[in-house]
Amino acid sequence: MIEDDTEPKVSLTAEQEESLLSFMQSDSVYQKYHDEVIILLGTGLRISELCGLTKTDLDFENRVINVDQQLLRSAEIGYYIEKPKTQSGIRQIPMSEKVYEALGRVLENRKGAKATTIDGYSNFLFLNRDG
User: Fold this and answer.
1) What are residue 126's phi and psi, to 5 degrees?
2) What is the DSSP secondary structure assignment for residue 54, as one 8-state letter?
3) pTM (two decimals)
4) Looking at the domain assignment, is residue 119 inside a domain?
5) How far apart are CA 73 and CA 25, in angstroms?
């Protein structure tokens, strides 16, 4: 299913972001999503773009994230990769210091995860509980 870009964009204030992240960091249920939320807030990525990120999309030297695919899921076919709907969806997003550190932790935490390939893409940063 393609995302609907007509939905209004909602932004959090800096105080609201800090409150959310502080809560998540101290909560035993939501703590595991802390880095993902830092990345989403710091980049503006769509959830499908975040889920579609692979190790090769990250340029730590230049501190940019290359976005040119998204991971989607269909009840009929399961997981699949799709290119962005428009050319403007293909972009480079700079990494803030917080995003840079969060991505480093994500890579460290996924060490030893079993390899998953979807439509020729592998080394996804974010995995389900089954790896």
Assistant:
1) -115, 125
2) B
3) 0.84
4) no
5) 29
